[in-house]
Fold this sequence. Notes:
Layout: E1 5-8, E2 13-16, E3 37-40, E4 45-46, H1 52-68, E5 72-74, H2 93-97, E6 103-111, E7 116-125, E8 130-131, E9 136-141, H3 145-161, E10 169-177, E11 184-191, E12 198-199, E13 207-212, E14 218-223, E15 230-235, E16 241-243, E17 251-257, E18 263-270, E19 273-280, E20 285-288, E21 296-301, E22 307-312, E23 319-324, E24 331-332, E25 339-345, E26 351-358, E27 361-368, E28 375-380, E29 383-388, E30 394-400, E31 408-414, E32 421-422, E33 429-437
Parallel strand pairs: 3-5, 3-6, 4-6
Antiparallel strand pairs: 1-2, 2-9, 6-7, 7-8, 7-9, 10-11, 10-33, 11-12, 13-14, 14-15, 15-16, 17-18, 18-19, 19-20, 21-22, 22-23, 23-24, 25-26, 26-27, 27-28, 29-30, 30-31, 31-32
Helix pairs in contact: 1-3
Amino acid sequence: MRVIYLSILALGFFVHNALAQNGPLRVNITQGVIEPLTFAIPIFEAENLEAAAVATEISRIVAADLTSSGLFREIPFDRFISRRTTFAEAVRYPDWRAINTQALMTAAVKTTSSGRLIVKFRIFDIFSGVQLGSGMQLAGNTKAIRRMAHKVADQVYERITGEGPYFDSKIVFVSESGPKDNRRKRLAIMDSDGEDVQFLTGNENIVLAPRISNNGKQVLYTSWETGFPQIYILNVGTAGRKPLPTPKNGMGFSPRFSPDSKRIVYSFERGGNSDIYLMDLATARSARMTSSPSIDTAPSFSSDGRQIVFESDRSGTQQLYIMPVSGGTPKRISFGNGRYGTPVWSPRGDLIAFTKQSNGRFGIGVMRTDGSEERLLSASFLDEGPTWSPNGRVIMFAREDRGPKGAPSLYSVDITGRNLRALNLRAPASDPSWGPVQP
């Protein structure tokens, strides 16, 4: 197995990866409707006794990640004909073809006395009867089992689909508790699959609209800690936070980072009128970007940092506009029936996601950056607040049920409108913000 070393410093991971071959196995995800690729993952081989429980856990997380994408469908264990016992064992292709397996993943796990966890794995194209690319190996800390599994899933996903990874990423959100008319809220962070929830703030004060930076190290949010809405910036690693200065005699809200995490855009309201402001975080100085007798809010940077998209009622109804960060006249891009809000530019730069209110329902949609090719991906009593996965393939948002006992929960959907699924969280949740793939 030829290897190239790539250090992943945050948790001491190492990826050993050879250049992938251009094999015939590939998921075609350019169409709106696809047939998921069938895959089989036998329980990973434990190369020592201590790795037995770990091997099972990692294999199940990998399978769950791939299945959650909607692009893969797992073959159940009880259909297996071949019962693999060792990682080195030759693949019996006819046995896997007989149960309609398209891709097979085999892996082995071992732990060391120094607390290291090593996973090596291979992917096989069953119908072509070949290994897909070279074998791979990951090494990390035994305390980071979930991250190891997400990294493995990312490598498999990337090799088969050609898309960028997204499983090993974090999502910041608002965790809620209590009755609907007295909801308590606090910031939390979790894995992309909804596991390993950790709280970043207490629930003593109302917090809204967290936005994680592109490097995953900081979070912007609005808090009523002082009895008045104010923008705060929080360090994810330490949970230390501080307020950001905004102009006097008004309130700042709806902040969002630039792609390089050095600037933010936000809304500032004064006298019933709100405009978009740009702040340099190094100097904490703000500059006004829009000036009109209207409500301009919810700004978001383009992926290259040169433009912003925001919502405004300057035309009489709530619509979407784009403008250069350097200044200029905003250009309206939404012209469909209904109202548009909370726009977010895709990390790929090709699409803008938004919330749309039409015919008494709220839905999540996407459009090209010039407003063309608009399409809705979801609709319900209240779907709102889209956020993009790091690879621009999946959108997460909050959905709230109707009625006095209705509570928000988080959903995700593929940009084709397929694979709408709810995250299995233990408490109501809203305002998701998807961070980058972890280093």
